[in-house]
Amino acid sequence: MAKQMTEMLKGTLEGIVLAILDESPAYGYEITARLRGKGLSDIVEGTVYALLIRLEKRGQVDVEKVPSEKGPPRKVYTLNAMGRDYLEEFWKNWFFLSERIEALHKNYTNHPEGKSS
Questions:
Q1: Calpha distance 5→1 (Å, rounded)
Q2: Residue 10's pLDDT is what?
Q3: Rounded CA gap, 10 and 61, in Å?
């Protein structure tokens, strides 16, 4: 089941990270910690950092280097207007898909051969 969950997360992680940044600006490790705090404990920092680089290149986040007490400056990511537009589209697509998946699930659980024991 872990592999299946990983594959499903790959398609949604960008939207999830943008939603985290919609709450408030954050740096990479902090984003990873917030994801873990929301129950996504299998996400590794390297995945988050690679995703942040993609979001930055696409112009969906703004980046500011902020001094750190424990080493080099941190890159703090802030959701910008382009990222907000992408996030809005993500939520529209998410709700469209989730409604259809929920309908399929109801159909699945209403058939005796589809019920899990």
A1: 6
A2: 81
A3: 19
CA distance 59 to 66: 19
pLDDT band at 117 (very low <50, low <70, confident <90, very high): very low
List the 26-27 sheet strands across, edge first: 26-27, 71-79, 61-68
As a whole number, mean pLDDT of residues 94-102 equals: 94
Residue 11 has a CB neighbour count (10 Å cut-off) of 9
CA distance 44 to 55: 17
pTM: 0.85
Assign residue 71 a region (left: φ > 0; alpha: ψ between -120 and 50; beta: otherwise): left
Answer whether 14's CB lies under 8 Å from 51's CB. Answer: yes
CA distance 43 to 6: 9
